[in-house]
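Support reply, case 0932

Customer input (verbatim):
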Amino acid sequence: MDILLVGAGLSGAVIGRRLAEAGHACRIIDARGHIGGNCHTARDPGTGVMMHVYGPHIFHTDDEEVWDYVNGFSDFVPFRNRVKSTTRGAVYSLPVNLLTINQFFGRTMRPDEARAFIEDLAETGISEPRNFEEQALRLIGRDLYEAFFKGYTEKQWGCSPTELPASILKRLPLRFNYDDNYFFHRFQGMPRDGYTAMIAAILDHPNIRVDLDTPHAPDMTADHVFWSGPLDGYFDYDLGRLGYRTLDFERFTYRGDYQGCAVMNYGDAEVPWTRITEHKHFSPWETHEGSICYREYSRACGPDDIPYYPIRLVEEKALLEEYVARAETLSGVTFVGRLGTYRYLDMDVTIREALDTATAFLACGAAERPAPAFLRRPL
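Our regenerated output:
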């Protein structure tokens, strides 16, 4: 079969590779001039630093098959993300852990003492939290919430935490030990040569053709299309646009070590940026004199912006329902990835779903039945 995959990011590359290995002719197109989507990495010519061009991506997973898959195309170096937060004139470790709690409250508590202390701070009178803020207050109390979560959330989502659903915050990453590894998964690492090199290796197959600077056009024909662009974009946004947050990066250089860590959050609402990332710390096995840093700002996504985070509040979910219903009436197209399913997906989940989507497509072909519009209905 002739397969057209729209988007040369993780979804398109992984699905294309699996189908190419099964003998299908795969054409992968991307409107941008590079592969990798928002995972794209590139060497800064001035400093030699490996830059995460669209913001940092750290690979972490408990899925051993996915971990083995990416290691088949790149040498992954162990990496632990140790995030810091500047708030109220001091620097703390995230996620909130025993060191954070003791430092913030000026105490020297043991784990059991800290647990009881936080339980006393929690506003347990909130029996049924109605929003993000009430959920946070119920879990950790006002002091930690306002220092580390309130201002950051307001900047990240552009609204009061009282406007966000409580379901976003099923639990807070709170540790009663001194573990400051931001993630908790078994496998964590960075590709030694960057994500773009890894994705180039995935795409290196004689049955795969990649065309960059090539937006999708209606006259492009194929036996089946895998669409990893925006779901609403497939329909030319004719019902309206699904809401996203986008990011602006204020890049600056520094000679030496600017902040001593890869990620520094800023919890105070008065500081306009959400965090500063220093990219050479994402490759700690390398040594560079110079440094590339990004100040990161979050705002509403416009028509010409790169969409990052789906908002998925009540209004967006109603519109999503309409687009999903339309998509399910189509034949010959499957919607995949973060944009195609209007969900926030970590890289490992994106790869897992891409592998499963390819497997399901091949099974449908063998059974002579049409492939579904979605591997999992995104509602």
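We compared this against your earlier run and they match. Two observations from our side: The radius of gyration is 22 Å. The longest strand covers residues 244-255. Please reopen the case if you see a mismatch on your end.
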